[in-house]
Specification:
Layout lengths: L2 H23 L2 H20 L4 H41 L8 H10 L3 E2 L14 H16 L13 E5 L6 H12 L2 E6 H4 L6 H15 L3 E6 L15 H15 L9 E7 L7 H6 L2 E4 L5 H10 L10 H10 L5 H21 L17 H10 L6 H14 L3
Length: 399
């Protein structure tokens, strides 16, 4: 590597490090510029370098930097569209709820959590969970679609908690509910709302709810809410975490929903027993999302093998449903991913994929492929874990 090459690479590394620093602070415009400069420097670097390992590494870095810059650009464009929409909503509301310059900066920071259009997920895309779907339809979809039916004492719920084993479709249920009623969908997790800077996390929570009110009808979905709202007073709790919990409790408690501006908070957790009692009380509906039943498991196998040549009939899928007891939807998805790769793996092992121009025929997937894989890929939940969810559901929730 020549002296010129070395300096060019060092410059690219310096620009990339600065980009990451800006990215972490939420200064996305500066980060985009730095990511692009780092990518451009690496492109020039590989023109003068013959080391194939180094070239491969640089190409991967270039792709990562440009992808991140593209993502940040879309986030900023989303923030601008929401900014103009919130300005319009403020005017319609007679100037109430004006957003400060500081809150506009916060809006830029949370733009990655905001989806301005309803997710393209339908109830039919989710196998089983009929009772969970019905509860969400009553709590979210109907009050937004038919607001005149939910007036007076029959007012809609403002908070719904989805709990159950991991990988059972809680996030999909939230997206489908937002899609059905064409509400603005705000998706956030603890990672999105927690910041290492003092006081910033509370501002993020406050800004998210303020924008949610302005963009109503809206649905604020907080995934892994147990990470934000564990029981207060425990030894591992820091002052910053306690302030975030207090802010979140205050926002949910003070949330106002009207006939014209319905708004709902939807939380999801795999550990409902870790939630603070005050937070539990904010969610009037607590919905258990269990492992899929036999019929749903058979349907999930079909969903995750769609478009792949199969030598299976409906009875074979029922057998798979029987063999996959205690498997979550995510477990079944992992099984299917492993199975559909088996014919490709066999072709690769035989050397038939060495020549790109050579045409190959991929064999159909068989029931035996699934049987072999089910012996290797085991479910994540055992009976003891399931019993804990069942007990909590009987004590606090509903089916």
């Amino acid at each position: 590597m020549s002296s010129f090459d070395s300096k060019l690479y060092q410059f690219a590394v310096k620009e990339a490090n600065e980009a990451v620093a800006y990215d972490g602070k939420g200064q996305y415009r500066q980060a985009i510029n730095k990511y692009q400069r780092a990518a451009e420097s690496l492109i020039q670097f590989i023109k003068y370098n013959n080391n194939q390992i180094m070239i491969k590494k640089c190409k991967k870095q270039i792709e990562e930097y440009l992808d991140r810059a593209k993502l940040l650009k879309s986030h900023l464009n989303g923030a601008r569209s929401i900014k103009s929409a919130t300005d319009r909503d403020i005017k319609e509301a007679g100037g109430e709820g004006e957003i400060s310059d500081e809150e506009r900066e916060i809006l830029d920071m949370i733009s990655g959590t905001i989806i301005t259009e309803s997710p393209n997920v339908k109830w039919s895309d989710i196998a089983g969970l009929k009772s969970s779907k019905q509860v969400l339809r009553e709590a979210i979809v109907l009050p937004i679609m038919k607001p005149k039916l939910f007036t007076g004492a029959r007012k809609p719920w403002s908070g719904v908690l989805l709990f159950g084993p991991p990988g059972c479709g809680k996030t999909l249920l939230a997206k489908a509910a937002a899609s059905e009623c064409k509400a603005t969908f705000f998706s956030a997790s603890s990672a999105d709302l927690l910041s290492k800077w003092l006081g910033e996390s509370e501002k993020l929570v406050s800004a998210l709810f303020k924008i949610g009110r302005l963009r109503a009808p809206s649905l604020i979905f907080i995934d892994e809410i147990d990470s934000l709202a564990t029981k207060r007073g425990e030894g591992s709790e820091s002052g910053g975490e306690r302030r975030v919990k207090t802010q979140l409790l205050s926002e949910i408690q003070g949330m106002k929903t009207t006939e014209n501006k319905p708004m709902l908070v939807l939380g999801a957790t795999n550990r409902p027993w870790d939630l603070d009692n005050a937070m539990l009380s904010r969610f009037q509906k607590k919905v258990y999302v269990p492992l899929p039943d036999l019929e749903a498991r058979a349907e999930i196998f079909k969903i995750h093998t769609k478009g792949v040549n199969m030598a299976l009939d409906d009875e074979d899928f029922i057998e798979l449903g029987v063999r996959s007891e205690r498997y979550s939807g995510r477990d079944i998805s992992n099984v299917c991913r492993e199975v559909i790769m088996m014919p490709i793996r066999e072709l690769d092992a035989s050397g038939m994929l060495e020549h790109p121009e050579q045409e190959v025929k991929v064999r159909d997937i068989t029931l035996d492929d699934f049987k072999k894989t089910l012996k290797k890929v085991k479910p994540m939940m055992d009976n003891k874990d399931l019993a804990r969810y069942e007990d909590w559901a009987q004590k606090y929730g509903e089916y």
